[in-house]
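Quiz preparation item.
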């Protein structure tokens, strides 16, 4: 009986208590963020890896991320981000191989620790008339990093998912390097038209997926209330509604209870079998 009680408690904790477990706390908001590296002496700083140099000091932008744009000459460099005196990442420097003189945008997210630059990847933002719903000060704001497209898994596709866009019809495109100087619309066309998409209900997940090679932005609209973006793609760049899931009438919590009951039944049957063998 003790074993059954423990199994029941374990099953219920997996299904119910697990959903109530608190998320890891976000890091404290930094007061200073600096980009340091072997390129600093080339951009006007007194020395390399100098966290006090104003030319490479980042600014907090809308969306809570920090960014700085630096004119870097061609060359092979290494860099880190210094957050309130702490050099990140630990270990080796991040590579920065600049083929020709250019402006480089560096971005840092203090909550996730995500670091990006416009040489090793793209600093691209999904812009549109939905951005003010995300907390941006204005719509079509390329310098609001709330909708930054990220390549966190290194597969080359930059994505952003949100469930905060209200019900309605919306438009989007992609902007690079915190400005509209380089932007792409439907079909990956430079300066092209905005991509329309519709959100059927509040809480619906919407995923923006951007291919920096083709410049195609695909918008996938998920199923309301599922918390997942669903599936679908459009090689021309457009909005793709995910297929509707069938309504089974079964919710997650009853499934957990059923699993617990089956588990208890199995343990009870095994105990009864052992008692029967002993009696025999």
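Solution:
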């Amino acid at each position: 009986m003790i074993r059954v009680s423990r199994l029941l408690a374990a099953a219920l904790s997996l299904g119910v208590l697990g959903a109530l477990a608190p998320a890891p706390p976000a890091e404290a908001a930094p007061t200073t963020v600096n980009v340091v590296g072997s390129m600093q002496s080339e951009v006007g700083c007194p020395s390399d890896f100098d966290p006090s140099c104003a030319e490479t000091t980042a600014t907090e932008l809308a969306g809570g991320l920090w960014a700085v744009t630096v004119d870097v000459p061609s060359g092979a460099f290494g860099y880190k981000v210094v957050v309130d005196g702490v050099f990140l990442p630990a270990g080796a420097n991040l590579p920065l191989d600049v083929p020709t003189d250019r402006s480089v945008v560096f971005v840092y997210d203090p909550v996730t620790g995500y670091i990006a630059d416009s040489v090793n990847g793209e600093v691209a933002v999904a812009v549109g008339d939905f951005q003010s719903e995300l907390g941006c000060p204005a719509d079509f704001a390329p310098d609001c990093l709330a909708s930054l497209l990220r390549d966190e898994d290194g597969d080359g596709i930059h994505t952003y998912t949100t469930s905060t866009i209200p019900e309605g019809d919306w438009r989007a495109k992609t902007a690079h390097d915190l400005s509209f100087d380089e932007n792409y619309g439907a079909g990956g066309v430079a300066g092209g038209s905005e991509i329309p998409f519709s959100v059927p209900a509040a809480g619906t997940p919407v995923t923006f997926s951007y291919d920096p090679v083709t410049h195609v932005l695909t918008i996938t609209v998920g199923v309301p209330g599922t918390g997942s973006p669903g599936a679908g793609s459009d090689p021309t760049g457009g909005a793709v509604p995910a297929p509707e899931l069938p309504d089974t009438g079964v919710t997650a919590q009853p499934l957990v209870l059923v699993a617990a009951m089956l588990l208890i039944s199995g343990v009870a049957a095994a105990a009864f079998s052992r008692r029967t063998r002993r009696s025999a």
